[in-house]
Amino acid sequence: MERSFAKEIELLKLGDGEVFQGEGILAVSKALLQSGISYVGGYQGAPITHLLDVFFQAEDLLEELGVSVTTCTSETAAAAMCGASINYHLRGAVSWKSVVGTNVAADPISHLASSGVTGGVLFIIGEDYGEGASIMQERSHSFAMKSSLWYIDPKPNLTTITDLVEKGFELSEISNTPVMFQLRIRACHVQGSFIARDNKRGQFSGNAKLSQHDFDYNRLCHPPSTFAQEKHKVDIRIKKAQEFILDQNLNEIIDGDFNDVGLILQGGLYNSLQRALVMLELSNTYGDCEFPQLILNVTHPLVPSQIEEFCLGKKAVLVIEEGNPEYIEHQITAILGRADIQTKVHGKDFLPMAGEYRTEVIMEGLTKYFAAVRPQGLNTNPLQNLTDGYLEHKEIGTTVFKEELPGRPPGFCTGCPERPIFSAIKLVNQELGETHVSADIGCHALATLPPFNQGNTIMGYGMSLAGSMAIAPNFDKRVISIMGDGGFWHNGLTTGVASTIFNQDDSILIIMRNGYTSATGWQYLPSSSRNRFGTDFDMPIDEAVKGLGAKWVRTIDNYNTPTVVNTIREARTTTEKGLKVIIAEGECQLARQRRLKTENKEILDHGGRLVRTRFAVDDEICTGDHSCIRLSGCPSLTIKPNPNPLKEAPVAHVQNDCVGCGLCGELAQTATLCPSFFKIDVVSNPNWLDKAFHGMRRAVIGWLQGNQTAAQQS
């Protein structure tokens, strides 16, 4: 991880009464330290990546508090860490990206939910339902219901978020149940402040270690204990949780003048709802609303008595619940039905079944709701006019922008080491024909888009090889599976490589070894050249796959296009059966450029010689067919008007953000394209030899130009 979080770490040191000013995700980190945690770990992914990034760099502070920080290779490992809290009073928190991370962590989560915990446990899950970075539109809420975990979805303000982190640990310990703490993308990045408290040392930690082990068979997920644990969940744990939620006012009730109707909402949607009410002129910017609201900061379990009390006397309530299915709406309907309360429950009849509940979506739903239920004393006619006016302006703005702004599809970064692999696959496909490509989560998933269009399926992180095991024996060509080194260590080694070798399948695996989990922010991996402690470290991928029995293993340099092409061709055509593994090595260019920026500055500051390589296109040679762009897809490659007035086709052009990877030139040569690319070495602080060569070159070029001019004149 190359980015420094020094400023953020200073905020973690704030003491009692000091004002914390920053974003939500960092506030959570501070709240964890205020709660007296003993351990923290997880697997990073948007939008919650930086929670652990900050902790990894706060080594001195955490050592002082006795907090251990663990880099986990998967969400399963992160959840399993919390086994420490089953027998001992160790508070701990682990984080990952939801929903995909929760799916991976399912097994240990279920064990923890069954056995129960002694020390408080928080699963902090980053949620970006809607058009965020999630690869699927699901909710972790159902998982909490299935396993009888408690689910916190806090209002997106820092005071509420930090209070609920600390209360979450208390809730977990009182009910002996892990708590899922949902941190939405807007809550992660919301800016605000809260009054800090002193950091606390855990009862047991690295500075106050346990001295005796505790064995209790009843805490093991093993019959007959599991049957008693399930009964304990229903009879005791959930009741204790509901009592704590009521006693501590974890859910919030806001009174209003129009008390014949009400709004029940997930805490995480509070800001969007208030904005919608302001736009409908039913609230002010300070949240002074005219309608009663029940804000569910804890969305599971619901407290029946609280629901009944809020709904009693109201003719209707609107449940604002993002996502499908409508779990909370169904539960509220059942609670009121059992209590024989005749309040009409609305929700998905006025709000969309799926999709992110943005302000305009809630605004439309509120307008329909108020028009249908007609709150006493409210003139609903202006609401529809306000909504229609807003939507009309939005449509006009959308139309204008669509006409004026060009499309910007996602793609690989400049100099990305993964691009040469897909260019090589295209070149080999021209020779041998198209084959099935099993894609994976990560940067390489961008190859499914133009100009590569490589990737027929995506099954999960590190699951590409496992996802191709059924297609491989049923396809007339060897299929190709692609994963990154992050996916390989996450579960590709066991689910893919081990299974394929065990079943003697004949297929190809390309592992992109760029040295980081690049898509989530350049976190270190077991196969990184160094670890988060700054020491040299490497767990070789080739030795790992050979240890499982792989015989055909090749390690290649991504940027050596002829070698890449030949290796892929060999893998597809060799008579040798079994798994063919190609380890494609090339450091992530974004991380490399960030690293080189610091290193180069140091060299220049000390007067050292520095050579920076650039590539360019000769306008006079370029034919304007743009094969280079179609084959490489590099963002640095674009077009510009042809300087030759006799030619109409625009010529290729290399922009100033070129990082000198050389792929364009390599491809031009390998694919027998136009020879218009040339290399430029920009030398800073040149030595005498550089100056001599420069003088010679200028003299030769001048002589040649003079002869050409003379020939033209004659």
What's the number of extended β-strand segments? 24
What's the CATH class label of the largest domain? Alpha Beta
Please give the CATH architecture of the largest domain. 3-Layer(aba) Sandwich
Q: List segments where confidence is low: pLDDT < 50 over at least 5 consecutive residues.
A: none
User: How much helical structure, as a percent, in the residues?
Assistant: 40-55%
CATH superfamily of the largest domain: Thiamin diphosphate (ThDP)-binding fold, Pyr/PP domains
- Helix/strand structural class: alpha/beta
Q: Which fold name fills CATH's third level, the topology of the largest domain?
A: Rossmann fold
Given the structure, what is the number of helices?
26
Describe the strand arrangement of the main beta sheet, using strand numbers. Answer: 3-2-4-5-7-6-12
Q: In percent terms, what proportion of residues is strand?
A: 15-25%
Shape: globular
Cα-to-Cα separation, first versus last residue: 64 Å
Radius of gyration: 30 Å
Number of domains: 4
The main pleated sheet reads as:
7 strands, mixed
Nearest-integer average pLDDT: 88
Please provide a written account of the structure:
The chain is α/β, with parallel strands linked by helices and 714 residues long. It folds into four domains: 6-247, Thiamin diphosphate (ThDP)-binding fold, Pyr/PP domains (Rossmann fold), CATH 3.40.50; 252-404, Rossmann fold (3-Layer(aba) Sandwich), CATH 3.40.50.920; 419-591, Rossmann fold (3-Layer(aba) Sandwich), CATH 3.40.50; 609-713, Alpha-Beta Plaits (2-Layer Sandwich), CATH 3.30.70. It is built from 26 helices and 24 strands. The strands form six sheets. A seven-stranded mixed beta sheet has the order 3-2-4-5-7-6-12, with helices on both faces. Strands 16-15-17-18-20-19 form a six-stranded parallel beta sheet, sandwiched between helices. The protein has a five-stranded mixed beta sheet with strand order 9-11-10-13-14, with helices on both faces. The longest helix is centred in the C-terminal third of the chain and has 26 residues, at 688-713. The radius of gyration is 30 Å and the shape is globular.
